[in-house]
Design a protein that fits this description.
This protein has 457 residues and is mostly helical. It is 81% helix and 0% strand. It is built from 19 helices and no strands. It has helices at residues 14-20, 24-74, 77-81, 84-94, 99-128, 133-143, 152-160, 164-187, 192-216, 228-262, 265-278, 283-302, 304-341, 348-355, 358-375, 378-403, 405-420, 431-441, 444-456. α2 (24-74) packs across α10, α2 (24-74) packs antiparallel against α11 and α12 runs antiparallel to α13 (304-341). The radius of gyration is 22 Å and the shape is globular.
Length: 457
């Protein structure tokens, strides 16, 4: 007898219900994705509104300085996580019996990583902007968030159990509190530093709430263990991902840092406004990838053919979503920017029209990044990301002085194209996934399906 379908299935069309029968892993993935969607819908609805209000209130220059500091601190965030998120999730799914040792050891490693990342961020900002006391203070406050990275170990456990709803409860509760406080700050004409301190407050509350929910759901920290052998094995797998994470963060954030250094904080504010809109929809494919990939790993145990089919379906779906966003946004970019941020941010329209196409290669990067970890090709992940950041930096040096913020968007788009797609063809280990990505980009499976349905009709 087939297990009963979840309550939400009554609202699903009959043709989709057939695919859900006797597939509990898919049902869990759909439910988990639904919770992730709900999370980000709240964040987009409330978060974008508040973020736009903050941007209007601060103006391009102060908003640019705020985002410059965020980008600068994020650059060192990969050190705090030590590239362990994908590795730990993989091991929790494949080896649940060793979860206590994995979680305990990961917690300690990320605490050490957070200390190192914080120290480096504070030290480097003093060198890059030696006479700018305000920038230094902002980086110190924002950098303190890295000290709470170890609590993300709890997040990995919930993700491995496909129970993201508990993370969402926590983060949305805190998020709504912080959003309300931002509105109060605006109405009371608060300074830039007040908004900076709120970022640290949010990280503190999320950390406390995550631990509380983990304990409420029966989690027991007494079962967590720290073993040096486990630490060595985790770091052996993750060290390429630490450098890879630095590279990914660099070519996601280096454009804002270089804009700030070369053209000033106002250019960062213009660019950041475009990026806020460009990246707002990323939650959709990332939620799907996070929810579906554990079942793709399970499919590998059954059949390599099934494993490949499921991976191709994930590529196809996320690329379709990327095109559905990029095409109309290209033509509506300037109108949308001025509507949301005001006339002072009008220049961000052309930046958005370019940057929005980066989303195609972002979704390819995230999906193939999970695949590379699962296949043990972490060194290739490192290589492609290092090449990506080198290309981005070189292009920024030559293009930003000519095209300004538009040049930074062009550099980011091209570096993502090379690192997330073109480089796969160069290696025999990844050539197969290059062709899978190509089928998705050119929508070969989608076109084939459309013609098949037309012939049937």
């Amino acid at each position: 007898m087939a297990p009963p379908l979840p309550a939400w299935s009554r609202y699903v069309p009959a043709i989709l219900l057939e695919k859900l029968h006797n597939r509990p892993n898919l049902q869990k993935a759909v439910t988990n994705t639904g919770w992730l969607f709900a999370d980000h819908i709240v964040r987009i609805g409330v978060g974008l509104l508040v973020s736009v209000w903050v941007a209007r209130y601060l103006g391009p220059e102060q908003f640019g300085l705020f985002n410059y500091a965020i980008s600068f601190v994020t650059l060192f965030g990969a050190i705090a996580t030590l590239g362990l998120n994908g590795i730990v999730l993989r091991d929790l799914v494949k080896e649940p019996e060793t979860a206590g040792v994995t979680l305990g050891t990961t917690f300690v490693l990320q605490f050490i990583g957070g200390l190192v990342g914080f120290g480096l961020a504070v030290g480097v900002i003093g060198y890059v902007r030696p006479g700018d006391a305000l920038s230094q203070l902002i980086v110190v406050v924002l950098g303190s968030v890295m000290l709470f990275k170890p609590t993300e170990t709890v997040r990995y456990w919930f993700e491995s159990q496909v129970q993201s709803k508990y993370i969402i409860w926590v983060e949305n509760f805190v998020f709504l509190i912080i959003a309300a406080l931002k509105v109060i700050l605006i109405l009371n004409h608060a300074s830039l530093m007040a908004f900076v301190w709120l970022v640290l407050a949010e990280a503190t509350l999320v950390a406390i709430a995550l631990i509380s929910v983990y304990m409420w759901r029966g989690g027991d920290f007494h079962h967590w263990q720290i073993k040096s052998e486990r630490a060595k094995s985790l770091l052996k797998d993750s060290w390429p991902l630490i450098l890879s994470g630095l590279a990914i963060t660099a070519y996601m954030r280096i454009d804002q840092i270089m804009l700030g250094q070369m053209l000033g904080d106002e250019s960062v504010g213009i660019y950041s406004a475009a990026v806020r809109i460009s990246e707002a929809w990323y939650f959709i494919p990332l939620a799907i990838i996070a929810s579906v990939f554990p079942s793709i790993i399970e499919a590998q145990k059954q059949s390599l053919i099934l494993y490949s089919q499921r991976l191709q379906q994930l590529f196809d779906l996320t690329i379709i979503l990327a095109f559905l966003v990029a095409v109309p946004m290209t033509f509506l970019s300037t109108s949308l920017v001025t509507l949301l941020f005001g006339q002072s941010y009008e220049e961000a329209g052309s930046v958005l029209a370019i940057h929005i196409w980066t989303g195609i290669f972002v979704v390819l990067s995230h999906t193939s990044g999970r695949w590379l970890i699962n296949e043990g090709y972490t060194l290739f992940a490192l290589k492609r990301n290092l090449i990506g950041v080198i290309i981005n930096v070189i292009l920024n040096i030559y293009i930003i002085p000519i095209y300004g913020a538009n040049g930074a968007a062009i550099a980011t788009l091209f570096s993502y194209f090379v690192a997330s797609y073109a480089l796969d063809f160069a290696s025999k280990e990844t050539r197969l996934i290059f062709f899978q990505k190509s089928r998705a980009i050119f929508m070969l499976n989608t076109i084939k399906l459309l013609f098949r349905d037309r012939n049937l009709s």
